Amino acid sequence: MGGARPLAPWRWLGVPLVQCLALTVLFSMPFRMFGLSLPEPIFPMVPAFAWAVIRPSMLAPLGVLAMGLFLDVFWGAPLGLWALSLLVTYGAALVGRSMMAGQSWPVMWAWFAVNSGLAMGAAFLFTMLDSHATPSLVAVAWQFLATAILFPFAHLLIDRFEDADVRFR
Prior knowledge:
Elements: H1 9-27, E1 32-33, E2 36-37, H2 45-54, H3 59-75, H4 81-95, H5 97-100, H6 105-131, H7 137-148, H8 151-161
Antiparallel strand pairs: 1-2
């Protein structure tokens, strides 16, 4: 592509954060086509995964926390549910960062799916602990599939900023 871009925090953290929150609001609109509503993927999963792969940062976990708290407030979930789930995923991607370096597209998609499954599993368990009831496994599976499909956007974000910081080459 056009080469690496400078690693300004507003470009690799701020813009994706705002885009994910806007897409979350857009996809929550009561729009129905053929009797079906839009899926509700976890859009913040894209930057939470990509930021961990791009480079370690002190600002990225704060962005992940902010997006998770926004999801909690927006969807009416217990405060901290998605924030903690996304932070667990960010941490797992950060730990596996060295194993993901230089991997092919399908392997990275598998890593993204595993991290998405980890977040969904954490949210499932946290919901069970909070409500003392089991959430719908079918709904969780559909939300996982809708989120796993978002990997091309994470790959695009990684490709755009992966080589921008010369300290991590």
